[in-house]
Amino acid sequence: MTPFISEIIGTAILILLGGGVVANVVLNKTKGNSSGWMVITTAWGLAVYVAVVIAGPYSGAHINPAVSIGLAVAGKFPWEDVPMYVLAQMLGAMLGSLIVYVMYKDHFDVTDDKETKRAVFCTAPAIRNSFSNLFSEAIGTFVLIFTILYFTDATINDTETVVGLGSLGALPVAFLVWAIGLSLGGTTGYAINPARDLGPRIMHAILPIKGKGSNDWSYSWIPVLGPILGAALAALLMLALS
Fold it and tell me: What's the topology of domain 3-241?
C-alpha cells in the first residue's frame, strides 16, 4: 500500500463513519434518529481512530490537509509531498460521502428538509457570522495540530518513523477529536479538515439527491481556510516555543 492509496482509504473510512453517524442521527426513519450531539461527536472520534489504525503504518494517517500543511510548516513533513496527500484526502472524502449516500438513500428520500440532507455531507454554522465562524474553525484546528505536534515530538525516536497521526497511536487522536467536538464544535460543526467538508460538499452538488437544496458555496471557504490558518498558527507557535 502506497501513502497515496493509504490516504485515500483512510480518509474514505473517516467520512464513511463520520458522515454515516450524521446520516443516522438526522435523517428520517433511521434507527438512530434524533440521538443527538453526543452520538455524533463520539462517532467522529472513533471514525478518526479507525482511519488512523488503517492508514497510519503506510502514510502517517494525516487524513486531513490541515495536518499535512501544519506538519510541513513545522518542518516535520516535506512540502513536496503535501499536494499528493491533499489530492488523496480529497478523493477519499468524496468516495466516503458517496458510499454514505448510497447506503442511506432510502432515508434521504423520506427526509424533506434540504438543510438536513446537506448536513450529512458538510458543515454549516449555528449562527452565520463569517468572522466568528472562521475563528471557530481556526481555533478547533489549532488545538488539533498543536496537540499533534507535541505528541509526535514525544514519540519519534528514529529517522525511519513516518511523521503524522500514525506516530501518535490511534487512541489519543480519537480522544483529541472527541474533546474538540464536545467543547468547540457547537458553533460550526467543527470541520477542522478542509477535505472533510469540501470533498463531500462537491459530492452533494454532483449526486442526484431527491429534493436537495443549495450547496451553500458562500460558506464553503470557511471550513477550508479556517483549518489551514489554525494549522499554520499552531505550527508557528510550536516553532517559536521550541
Answer: Glycerol uptake facilitator protein (1.20.1080)
